[in-house]
Amino acid sequence: MFLRELTITIDHLKGAGPVSIRALASAGITSVGSLLCRYPRDWEDRSRAVPLRDFNAAPVCTVVRALAHTWFGSGGTKTLKVYVEDDKGTRASLVCFNRPFIEKVLKAGNYYRLWGAFQYRYGELQSSAFEVEALDGAGAPAPEQSAFGRILPVYALRPGLNQGMLRKFIHQALVQYAGPVEDELPRPIRDRDGLLPKAQALRAVHFPESLEELKKAVRTLVYEELFYLEVLVCRRAKARGSQGGGRSAPQFRPSPLQQNLLERLPFALTPGQAGAIGEINRDLDGQCQMARLLQGDVGSGKTLVSFLAALRAVEPGGQAALMAPTELLARQHAENAAALLEPLGVRPAFLTGNIRASGRAALLKSLAAGDIDLVVGTHALFSKDAAYKNLRLVVIDEQHRFGVVQRQAVMAKGERPDLLMMSATPIPRTLALTVFGDMDISVIPDMPSGRKPVKTHLARSSNEEKVYAFVRKELAAGKQAYFVYPLIEADEGKGLKDAESMAARLAEEVFPEYPAALIHSKRDEEEKRKIMERFRAGAVRILAATSVVEVGVDVPNATCMVIEHADRFGLSALHQLRGRVGRGKDQSYCFLVYSDSLTEDGKTRLKVMLENTDGFVIAEEDLKLRGPGQIAGTEQSGYFMLGIADPLRDSEMLAQARTDAFAMLERDPGLGLPEYQCVARVLDTAPPFGSMGL
Predict the structure, then answer these.
(1) Contact 120/114 with Cβ under 8 angstroms?
(2) Overall pTM > 0.85
(3) Which structural domains are found in the chain, ordered by start?
(4) How far apart are CA 673 and CA 679, in angstroms?
(5) Lowest mean pLDDT among 375-384, 416-425, 578-587
């Protein structure tokens, strides 16, 4: 019997009444199997003694004698304090907030087992978070019921649940039902890595007999989850012929149309660009549907690679669609496509929801007739009235800004079109093996020649005049500057600078001699387009904005990026904003202005930005600080809800599990592996193409 088959309901456990059953159900625990999968979030080692004097090394676990009781405060705040002493002669006080009953539990002169976290406060060693248990006498528990002398599990709780309840029911479930649970990992892997049998691992993860056994149990269950995650990823990859990024890069051999474009360019492709288009060409020429993630840092030339991919798709008579998250970015892509591809005979078009009805009808008619080769736009590309004659390639720029439903909708416009997803937010390897594990991955690690790294500086809000002075020098030299703020308009409750009021101040007080403009998400699309055109043309020298410019138009003459309240932005957002400058050959600068009362988390984030320009390093740190869902845009996808595994913490085990899963299924594609309960629950709702929902 596998764990997933333990569907016996909780009411079969002794003492499980209506109240506890409802409380367990609110936490998703309705069966014995789901109860046993409620793994501890931590463990308390009460198997070894820790005297009071060693309180800094570990939680205290010792025997003490109660000395005396005293009270402090008055009325409703009157609080009991109990003084205790251990056999080393160290004294401490137990502060019993809201626990006056302890006066009757701890009797002066008697001995008790004590567990707690202690610290020096008000000139004495004290604890307000502690547990006690009578050592002997009428109040002492039976040895098998004692909370001391063992390693105790600590569970995440929900309203109505407590540690004692979970420990009791899980112990019952282990004794009554866990014995016959079969192993789910293949025997060769268990033998190779010294992993525990499943039944033993379940018992040991909840109630280990030693720290060594606990370590083996955790390793067994973590590896098991990751192995079955990668089995499912591998099966999906093989279902469409993908190798999950496992193939070597082929040599780039351009098609005739691609060669024509390359000959018109005033520069050569970087090795990274050439390698990426070589991999894409191989996919497009193959028999299986392409699903490839193209990642590269801001300014690495991903758009040009997507144009080359589009040429390969349209050359034999197909159509390509490039979807961008904002109209500003889509328009820039469309303009670049027109300039580069129209001379080659390619027929590009621009489609957004703001195109007037008369022009839209004609455009849609041409698209359906196949008279448009490449259409660039926003979500309008998958609107109900948008039809394609032969959609062969879908390119999604800034993929994390689109939801699963949107990505599915545009793919549904063709008959199994190839998919190229692009991300300027580098995806850490750990995340790529899980969220994007069933896709092939191309990376552009280099930058076009002549680009200089952006110099990053930190500045306190109280020193912003120095920042203004530096920017003024750049403006006097004919350059341009961005000023980015976390809010559109003032919010007195937050005490933060906002784009609207600061745009006025910059224009009227700080830089009155230079034309300035304001842009944010609430402005009309046409108005935003005109402002960005004026900024790109140099008519606007200072642009005050929110993070709406994180994905925007290239302005090579902009050399200064000033981000106010930088500690309020995520690392990926800061990196993207910094990437708005440094697009030309001139040295560019980024100023991260932070609050004088910067938090420790803010200090950590800004230090990463100061010390690193590599987007992959920054992404790894962002993954640690924010978690994987926000970076990958998969908060609602169901990923990263595993029972005990953590893809970041367990990255080495994840890589090994991936290797094992792919190798095993390569040898025997029909291998009869059991459906692993936790991973299956996570992935059951995910559509084809894994977490991408495509």
Answers:
(1) no
(2) no
(3) 3-38+158-211 (no CATH), 48-149 (2.40.50.140), 455-612 (3.40.50.300)
(4) 13
(5) 416-425
